[in-house]
Butyryl-CoA dehydrogenase (Micromonospora rifamycinica), 382 residues
Amino acid sequence: MDFRLSEEQAALRESVRDFAREAVAPVIADHYERHTFPYEIVRQMGKMGLFGLPFPEEHGGMGGDYFALCLALEELARVDSSVAITLEAAVSLGAMPIYRFGTDEQRERWLPKLLSGEALAGFGLTEPGTGSDAGGTRTRAVLDGDEWVINGSKAFITNSGTDITALVTVTAVTGTNPDGSKELSTIIVPSGTPGFTVAPAYSKVGWNASDTHELTFDDCRVPAGNLLGARGRGFAQFLRILDEGRIAIAALAVGLAQGCVDESLRYAKERQAFGQPIGNYQAIQFKIADMELKAHTARLAYYDAAARMLAGEPFKRQAAIAKLHASTVAVDNAREATQIHGGYGFMNEYPVARFWRDAKILEIGEGTSEVQRMIIARDLGL
């Protein structure tokens, strides 16, 4: 198995790396401090084709694959995770369900703007009080004639309240299965639909330049044709979407971990202590060596999971391993990078302070570390 990048993949990586350094790095700290969404950066990513990377050209995509998206996410997250998660959620949680499960009409209506970055979409799965327990979904949708009537709420939904958010796909209980379990379906709710309310943005520990809201649905009516995929297939749909998304989150986590190495190397060469650069001291050298080790092995984990997915092989366990390991590594490296920077690591003007605040959510979002361990254990037959 050869993990060396092709010329095309390497060119994509370098292009996104340059963009992150030249367009994102100079402005993102201000967005982060003011908790503002970086519309201009999103517009530029759209022009680069990043939102269409893993989609076919016939739908307005770039004709690439999911691994290409992961390479882009890693390079963006080396500089900032708010921008990276905006892209990740827009593609894997926003556009991908429409592409995977939508009708031709739904694809024609929504994909062109989603894949160009002109519009964003959210994925309404998590609910207040349920967290990882998707089976605890309480949002309900009742078919009334030719309309679905939706009532309920969702929590922690990314890309759900920007000025360019076009829709949110919502999982809802639409009936009862023969075995007595809840029948879950997924329904497209366009932004601005009466009864669909977006709460004010959360005050978050990190990802402060990304968009996250609680959503409520109060007798929200949408056409029956807004059902995404077959009725009752909502549970299977979001399991597929989350399996893929975990590889993307792993790539993002690797980017953050590598960014911690980048910033620590730079600081260790510049910072003087006791008459010489702190990088001359073995204690600092070993810290940075261990950080590089962790970032490298986490990268191999998501490369492996992506390769299996693209080959059409089972990849659920490998995706969980990649997400679990990479998110742990991101937190570890952020902690060590902050320690290397000393007091300056506690100052928001230094990127590592942002990395430290952004790292923890990677062990929680799109399946907690405990959920990943559960997936791995079950796949091992336990």
Summary: The two ends are 29 Å apart (CA to CA). Residues 236-379 form a domain with the Butyryl-CoA Dehydrogenase, subunit A; domain 3 fold (CATH 1.20.140.10).
